[in-house]
Write a structure and sequence with these properties.
Chain lengths: 103, 166, 391, 216
């Protein structure tokens, strides 16, 4: 097993766990946590490929990870803002109960 | 691979699993903090100092705290009566297992063709900074715009509804 | 001889490490430095507690602790024995593991911050390329420990106190970061040793410290305000307002765990003062060119103690702010001024040498300060308190 | 438009305050009269005249048992907000300072761990029998027995009262003397009247009685 492959495996595992969290849990906040985990796993992939790739000095993977962190922060802020807004409206964050289009 | 890698990977995966499986939401948030910290250590072990510290600063310092605030603002710390898992949990588990299987298969298939060792890239923070305002200046500006929009959007979405609006 | 005195700790470390086999030497030298930090700063903490109590007493025309040992200097030992022998109470419904981990995480995260501080010439544990970022990453982790403490106590006052403290720390962390960024812009590096090196020259006898520039002065003041809030010191010590706010996140802590919180708070104060010294006050460099014969670590620690004294002085003077005043002050005054300061720093960077940039930068900052201060006071976002029922 | 407000610059007050505390800081090293505190166990300040801690019972004569002013009327016991006074009334009577036959307390306990030093017992006492002490060093290792003071422990002489609250004690003494004089005069008048009644013939005695009634 090469180092790159083991990093990729860890990233795949974290990604799968995040996906499971997003699909399996009822709470909207937990879904967001799952999405964050998936984004992080992708970042790990980028960094691993940057580290073991042919042109690390081009910084492509690193830059992608940095931008992804910035975007993830924005995503978390907006996502949690939405969760709070929905909670205020529906008094629940349970996704199984949010099955109506009408308010 | 060094034992440190296995330890940190185990910590990351355990944190992620706990975040998904634990029932009380605050426990999930703390567990996901552990997973974030583990990922930051993995970044550091990949010689990506800047990304690792940015990960700690953004994810542990901001996102984890944000999640915690959201949990407490939505009374998420109370356990729901009808279970924490969705009705379609089986489908979710199957899908994610399938995704992991596919990814793992691809990685293991190509494991021997992947590069073995690479020299530690001599990239300083200075290089990253120069690259940010040179080659990646357009993405940087777009991220800045996105962050501004996200800040305004989050404030508006979460702002108190005015009396009479209801 | 002067060089030897300057490097005495480095030489000592090398001498001690040389006794060990070659394979152990790198680990041993790091370990030795860690042990030094772990010993020196808690000792400084013990001293500071007694000096703080004596200083506050003098400000209030009292004498202060004078019973234990000569002039009360052994007071911290008595306090330490007291807190060690006190009963460690964990509420029965508390989340015991998290309740236990919170102070540990806090102290560890704060100790990590010392790793990148240059405490003298060649005296830095790890000279990281992204040292400043590392410091802030560690500072951000303390927020998690604060939340852990408040939540795991299962006490609504603790939880509210924790949320209050976290909101305060996040708000002022933004300011702390942005005011440091202006230094990074001029020094061109995130490495703290390079930042100190960039300030180490002299013009005549005067040093090139960043505080002696318009943007540096404003940045330093903003940094000091944010640092005060970040370390929960008066007048921003709402997390400790036991008299009117049931303390805060550490309400349910007693005995040694409480002492750990106390220690963490003081260590954070030291490290944030050390960072401020490094960023704005020239780190370990001497204030005048003819004083360079005094060892660099003496300069670092005397600057550190000076800033600690200012912290104590402020605590003895200023009343506690209310939560809304605190937030208004952060978001409506300090943050805009810091952002403006960033722009002024950029202007300073690109205007080139000469008196013109002094005039322009100072004028912009002073005008902004007066304008924003007046607006804030007029709208009562901050400034003198007025109470309806009192008039 | 905000530039010409009468208010000073933002932060000026903070600087003024810092200067003031700095003056205190330096001054407390230089001039000893700035220091307001007293090094308590070694030095102590004389207690203020109006200081009050816990109540005590006043007695007049040399004997604490006989001279106790308290007549066990139990008003203080009823009025005490935290109910820290416990009184047992005697069966027999003995003469008080006026010479009148009065009950006396066989038991008078104050639990000073309960007492809140409100001085209501002093206000309501019609006999000036209970007063506030200035003694505050009452710490004890026995928190139940040691803090429950009985009649003997509570008794203090009038001289002691004069010592701790001279002005108040003088007023009280004057008032008591006046009352005693009045009582004496009345007793004398009654005695005189009785003597006159015995001496006078019946009609005159009747007239004297009406006179006395008009005098009331």
């Amino acid at each position: 097993m090469t180092p790159l492959a083991s990093y990729l495996l860890v990233a795949a595992l974290v990604f799968a766990i995040g996906l499971a969290g997003a699909l399996v849990r009822r709470n909207a906040i937990l879904v967001l946590i799952g999405i964050e985990l998936m984004l992080n796993a992708a970042n790990l992939n980028f960094i691993a490929f940057w580290r073991y790739g042919p042109h690390p000095e081009a910084l492509t993977g690193m830059m992608f990870a940095i931008f992804s962190i910035a975007v993830a922060a924005a995503e978390a802020a907006v996502g949690l803002g939405l969760v709070i807004a929905i909670y205020r409206h529906a008094q629940t964050t349970d996704l199984d109960k949010m099955n109506r289009m009408k308010g | 691979m060094s034992p440190v890698f296995y330890l940190v990977s185990a910590m990351t995966v355990a944190g992620a699993l706990a975040a998904v499986l634990l029932k009380p939401l605050v426990h999930c948030a703390l567990a996901v903090t552990v997973a974030f910290a583990g990922l930051a250590f993995l970044f550091l072990s990949l010689d990506a100092q800047f990304a690792g510290f940015a990960q700690i600063l953004v994810y542990i310092g901001a996102v984890a705290i944000l999640i915690v605030f959201a949990i407490l603002l939505t009374k998420g710390s109370e356990l729901p009566r009808d279970g924490v898992f969705s009705r379609s949990w089986l489908a979710g588990v199957v899908i994610s297992a399938a995704v992991f299987a596919a990814l793992g298969w691809a990685i293991l298939r190509s494991a021997w063709t992947l590069p073995h060792e690479a020299a530690v890239p001599a990239v300083t923070v200075h290089d990253i900074g120069v690259a940010l305002v040179d080659r990646y200046v357009l993405p940087l500006e777009i991220v800045a715009l996105l962050l501004t929009a996200a800040t305004i959007g989050a404030v508006i979405v979460a702002m108190h509804e005015k009396e009479g609006a209801k | 001889m002067i060089d030897k005195m300057d490097q005495i700790f480095v030489l000592l470390q090398h001498w001690l490490v040389a006794f060990l086999p070659l394979s152990l030497q790198p680990v041993a030298s790091v370990l030795l430095a860690v042990v030094a930090i772990v010993c020196v700063f808690p000792a400084l903490f013990a001293l500071t507690t007694v000096f703080e109590r004596k200083g506050l007493a003098r400000i209030q025309n009292r004498i202060g602790p004078n019973r234990v040992g000569p002039f009360g200097i052994m007071q911290p030992i008595a306090d330490g024995i007291k807190s060690l022998t006190k009963e460690d109470i964990v509420p029965s419904i508390a989340n015991a593991p998290v309740h236990f981990l919170a102070p540990v995480v806090l102290v560890v995260a704060v100790f990590m911050g010392f790793a990148v501080l240059p405490m003298g010439r060649n005296m830095v544990l790890v000279d990281m390329d992204a040292g400043l970022l590392f410091y802030f990453a560690m500072g951000a982790s303390t927020e998690v420990s604060v939340f852990m403490a408040g939540w795991s106590s299962r006490n609504k006052y603790s939880l509210l106190g924790a949320m209050r403290a976290v909101a305060q720390m996040i708000s002022y962390e933004v300011v702390l970061l942005l005011s440091s960024v202006s230094v990074v812009m001029i020094a061109g590096s995130l490495s703290l040793t390079k930042i100190v090196a960039a300030q180490s020259g002299y013009t005549g006898i005067f040093p090139h410290w960043y505080i002696f520039t318009p943007w540096g002065l404003v940045g330093f003041i903003m940094y000091a305000i944010a640092a005060t809030a970040e370390t929960n010191r008066s007048p921003f010590d709402l997390p400790e307002g036991e008299s009117e706010l049931v303390a805060g996140y550490h309400t349910e802590y007693s005995g040694f765990k409480f002492a750990l919180f106390f220690l963490g708070e003081y260590l954070a104060m030291f490290s944030i003062s050390g960072l401020g010294t490094t960023l704005f006050l020239g780190g370990w460099s001497a204030p005048f060119s003819f004083l360079t014969f005094i060892p660099s670590w003496i300069w670092f620690f005397s600057k550190l103690m000076m800033s600690i004294f200012v912290f104590i002085w402020m605590r003895g003077t200023l009343p506690r702010l209310r939560q809304d005043q605190l937030m208004n002050f952060a978001w409506k005054f300090v943050l805009p001024l810091t952002l403006l300061n960033l722009m002024v720093t950029a202007l300073w960077r690109f205007m080139g040498e000469g008196w013109a940039r002094w005039g322009v930068c100072s004028a912009i900052l002073i005008a902004a300060y007066i304008l924003m201060g007046r607006v804030g006071m007029y709208k009562e976002h901050f400034g003198p308190r007025r109470y309806r029922y009192a008039e | 438009m905000y530039l010409f407000l009468e208010d000073s610059l933002l932060g000026e007050g903070i600087l003024k305050g810092m200067a003031e505390t700095a003056r205190n800081f330096a001054g407390s090293f230089v001039s000893a009269e700035r220091l307001t505190t007293v090094q308590y166990p070694e030095e102590r300040e004389a207690p203020a005249e109006n200081a009050r801690v816990f109540p005590f019972l006043v007695f007049d004569t040399a004997d604490a048992e006989a001279g106790l002013r308290c007549v066990a009327c139990q008003i203080c016991e009823k009025e005490c907000p935290p109910k820290c006074i416990y009184i047992e009334k005697s069966k027999d009577k003995k003469p008080d300072y006026v010479g009148k036959q009065q009950f006396y307390p066989t038991r008078f306990d104050i639990d000073i761990s309960v007492c809140m030093s409100c001085q209501i017992c002093v206000e309501v006492c019609p006999f000036e029998a209970i007063k506030m002490d200035t003694q505050f060093e009452l710490a004890t290792t026995d928190r139940f027995g040691g803090l429950l003071l009985d009649r003997k422990e509570l008794s203090r002489s009038n001289e002691y009262y004069h010592q701790i609250h001279p002005t108040e004690a003088a007023e009280v003494d004057a008032r008591l003397a006046e009352e005693k004089a009045k009582a004496d005069a009345k007793a004398k008048a009654t005695a005189d009247a009785a003597a006159a009644k015995a001496a006078m013939p019946p009609p005159a005695a009747k007239a004297a009685a009406t006179e006395e009634g008009a005098g009331d």
